[in-house]
């Protein structure tokens, strides 16, 4: 087992009130409950397929006579997924790299037990997030995800390397921060180049899975998942829907050229990295499909600038699918969401002290099913900006590259 430092930071946890602690334990309990209930919920969906099959007239059942065998195979796939998720859940609570969050996790377990005893079903959003984790594992840690990773992670690691250069033979390596690190693959790819990469993630769905994969992976193809089993639309064949995906395609510890190059922090990006201790702490911030997760993108830019050294680089790739734009349709609270055009985002970045070195529009998919009849690709902005000294004139336009890329 290898400790990749997957724990909430002291700065984030020390200021948490008892009420906030109880709310977080309840939130963790909701997540644990959703993971535990994955198999039952997924098999309910298979039961729905079977129910609709028996409603058909006999002559129609005969024409789709392979459906019962498909349902039986789907249950096997779901069982394999559930075994992985439960193993990850147990490891997240038991392993020493979570010692700092032990009380919080145990409180979450108790909250999950209460939900289970009350036979409370997981919320549909939580059900979908568990399935989303399976797809994300394919993107980050499956060989099948390599083409998609090359569109985003590959571009970003190449750009970071071009800006920071080779790590010095003597002395500390450049430090790169990856907010919204998800399952940690981009962090690993950057650490593999010899940089000190630190990921930050807020979602416990991602944190528990990342901790498991990063710390417990011992061999390529150690686990076999079936991430597309729940997707019954736009499938070319049953085999495509049930196909296995082996993870990881690379062992994290074997990717790293030395110790101490990879760490993860849990918590809200703004809370963790706006502290005085983080001022100028990083040579580069790499954001991938992250900026539009903000309630207030301006706050994100301010924190990115805060934790970069003067002359440090901000490498960004992603669309502007503002995640909170429609929160009013499914959440009771009035969630803040600031949605502006790309031109406005770039103008704000300039006024906050960034100068554009590179800007390109590139195609990039996210959690795409390569064998689906439905394919979607984002037209992402890919930029590199540099932090200017305080008082420098605002400027964002221009740079050494500003163009449209039509290739992958």
UniProtKB/TrEMBL annotation:
<dbReference type="GO" id="GO:0032259">
    <property type="term" value="P:methylation"/>
</dbReference>
<feature type="region of interest" description="Disordered">
    <location>
        <begin position="1"/>
        <end position="25"/>
    </location>
</feature>
<dbReference type="Pfam" id="PF07942">
    <property type="entry name" value="CARME"/>
</dbReference>
<keyword id="KW-0808">Transferase</keyword>
<keyword id="KW-0949">S-adenosyl-L-methionine</keyword>
<protein>
    <recommendedName>
        <fullName>carnosine N-methyltransferase</fullName>
        <ecNumber>2.1.1.22</ecNumber>
    </recommendedName>
</protein>
<keyword id="KW-0489">Methyltransferase</keyword>
<dbReference type="InterPro" id="IPR029063">
    <property type="entry name" value="SAM-dependent_MTases_sf"/>
</dbReference>
<comment type="similarity">
    <text>Belongs to the carnosine N-methyltransferase family.</text>
</comment>
<dbReference type="GO" id="GO:0030735">
    <property type="term" value="F:carnosine N-methyltransferase activity"/>
</dbReference>
<dbReference type="InterPro" id="IPR012901">
    <property type="entry name" value="CARME"/>
</dbReference>
